[in-house]
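Ligand-bound model needed. 2'-O-acetyl adenosine-5-diphosphoribose.
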Amino acid sequence: MNFPESLIERLRQARRIVALTGAGISAESGLATFRDAQTGLWSKYRPEEIATAEAFQRDPKFVQDWYARRRQNALKSMPNAGHLALAKMEQRAPEFLLVTQNVDGLHQRAGSKQMVELHGNIHRFRCFENDCASENFDVENGRCRSCGGHLRPGVVWFGEMLPVDAIQTAVEAAESSEVFFSIGTSSLVYPAADLWRRAKNNGAVVVEINKDPTPLTPLADYSFLGKAGEILPEFARQIWIRQSGGAD
Ligand code: OAD
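Prediction:
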């Protein structure tokens, strides 16, 4: 794949790069995107009906089981070439921040370190009833040992606020970025879907990599329709490897 030389040059010069990722980056690792159909026992529910505090209050076990299955799927899957390319970009760029909406932990496993998890992480837990400070948790039985309350996943549910620190860091980074990538996200869920606009309003070049067109597609400076696991490694190679003439 050949990228416009102007973009490659801009990326080589850029001191601050931000990449926002969504479920699409993990699709090639075998994890269903959020808006894909649910399967099996959960097929008659939409995520919006399960991933809420109300659903948990009604039936904690049901929601815990749904998350246990997603957690197992995440652990069984491996980071793909897209995750690995982003970890490599972090090592090469002067400043690089990865902002992810994903909760699967695959970016960390690929080696990304400078990152913000906007929607939390499925491998962490919190006490639902009392939000107990100590993590004295019996994960196997889904209970907090301090108060006996139910354990909920450490993710942001529908109707909940994003962690203030995380969104603040993401907004500041987007506003001061020179290049902003939007990768594998439908650009529908706010406030993440607004980050590219903040970047663009402050002069960044906005680059989208997504399998299908999104509301961002006609507005991005560059849009590449395709798989993140194929496009990102090629990007990383053309920006840095080709320049130094070196091996990977
Ligand atoms: P979506 O499921 O809405 O969108 C995934 C996007 O990835 C789609 O636009 C696909 O076309 C694209 N895609 C699929 N496979 C791809 C691939 N191999 N390479 C590149 N793109 C690919 O997921 P998100 O945008 O992440 O929030 O959804 C955002 C948030 O909505 C989620 O974090 C979740 C949900 O509400 C919370 O749980 C709080």
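The chain has two domains: 1-31+78-119+162-248, 39-76+122-155.
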